[in-house]
Design a protein that fits this description.
The protein has two domains: 36 residues, no CATH class; 36 residues, no CATH class. The chain is mostly helical. The chain has seven helices and no strands.
Length: 82
């Protein structure tokens, strides 16, 4: 689904517990569709990769660590190990 489709009526009228916690889902989706800045904190609250990094690295900002395992796993640079 494209970012433009996510802004459609169906996605913006539903509110999940996650969206309630981070603010209005409609506002986040609108911002996410318009923003092209990779370090934007508003986008990172909506991005599950950065959300995972925040939980594991205890960092509430953008990851600036080149060896972050959360981001490496998401980009396919490392595989999950058992």
């Amino acid at each position: 689904m494209s970012r433009e489709q996510m802004l459609g009526e169906g996605m913006t009228t539903q509110v999940s517990p996650y969206s309630y916690r981070v603010g209005s889902l409609k506002g986040i989706l609108k911002h996410y569709a318009d923003c092209f800045h990779l370090d934007c904190l508003e986008c990172h609250r909506f991005n599950p990769v950065v959300f995972e990094h925040v939980l594991f690295c205890e960092d509430n900002r953008n990851c600036r660590i080149p060896g972050c395992l959360s981001i490496a796993r998401a980009t396919g640079r490392i595989m999950e190990t058992a």
